[in-house]
Amino acid sequence: MRRTLPVSLDAMDHRGTVWVVVLLTLAVTWQGWADRPTAATAAWSQFLGPHRNGTSDETGLLNRWPADGPKEVWRVVGGVGMSGMVISRGQLVTMVQDEDKQYVIALDALTGQQRWRTGVAPAYHNSMGDGPRGTPAIVDDHVFAYSGEGVLTALKFATGEVVWRHDTVKELGGKAADYGMACSPLVVGKLVIVTPGAPDATVAAYDRVTGELTWKSGTGSAGYSSPALLNVGGREQVVAFTGHGVMGLDPQTGTSLWRYPYKTNYDCNIATPIAIGDRVFISAGEDHGCVLLSLTPAGDTFDATEVWQSQGKTSVMRNGWPTSILSEGRLYGLDNVGASTALTHLNCVDAATGKLLWQQKRFGNGNLIAADGKLILTTMKGELVLARMSPDGYDEIGRATVVGKTRQAAALSSGRVYLRDDREIVCIDLRESP
Fold first, then answer.
1. Could you tell me the sign of the dihedral formed by the alpha carbons of 151, 152, 154, 159, in that order?
2. Of 379, 289, 370, 386, which Cα lies nearest the Cα of 326?
């Protein structure tokens, strides 16, 4: 509400009057603008966030859990699928499915109002869950999405108009993974990279403007992990955890730089590789384990050797589908014991040595991201959990049931977290009150 100034405007010259009006307008509108996401704070534009490792640089999240739980900002109808959510410039993008098609949809991140909806592939059905698996990527004026059977589509960010599309598995002579194509596209410079798992194209890169196939690399199945761009071994490289192992590739040519075999039952390598300093960490669930790899130059390639490894029923970390979080030299992750829906602990591990620091037993299956020194966890029961990251033990701030059964990690933008299940998409405000 405007206040009357204790000064006569008639006594001011024209310039002074203009400045008073400007200042009053700013005072009235500041609160509204303070609530709007900015380009600097709202970027969660790819799988696992701005750094593709589940972490955000945002601060100011809740330190105490409100008595009636965190504030729900909006809740809208979504659709079937396991695709995560990405946010850029005030727009949320994800993939959903109805009875007929898989869609890429865009919502206003502040209100949940739908901006556009584009069909990209027929409905995908699988015994392990229907609908798309991959999380889209937003880069500049485009969105890149990968469907359950491996259709890669480029769309316009503003309108959802299809720019180009490729049925990567079919075109490259591959076979869709048993549980669906789960790769989330990785954009590196002018290229968008996915894992079709074809006989001579485990990994493939397409020109993100024209859609032209630029390179293909590797042999063997795709698995279910998403590639990452890591600066390891003294150089930037695409690191892909495929059905039979992990490998490093030159981002521009696809040339193989190194490979480390890591075979799991049903090719269920799912978690994304992460960098720990100059090294690569991988992990797989169902009583497999984890490895920290060092890369030693060998001419134009590298030799991958184990710094430490922890395997089998005594492993310190067996990531089923969630990628572990690295913070201050410690790994926080969901340790999956036995089959994928069986017992799951929340573990904290010294990243340098592989020593288990603490374990929150029977935490339950779910997913996790991190920001502001806190873990933001989602459980398959639909709970949102906030906990402090500490080497001393599990420190929960609070939890609330906000959605139905879900596997997706939350997305974070401007202090708001976005979650989904097979029916709804929900926005929750996790900002600490001023």
1. positive
2. 370
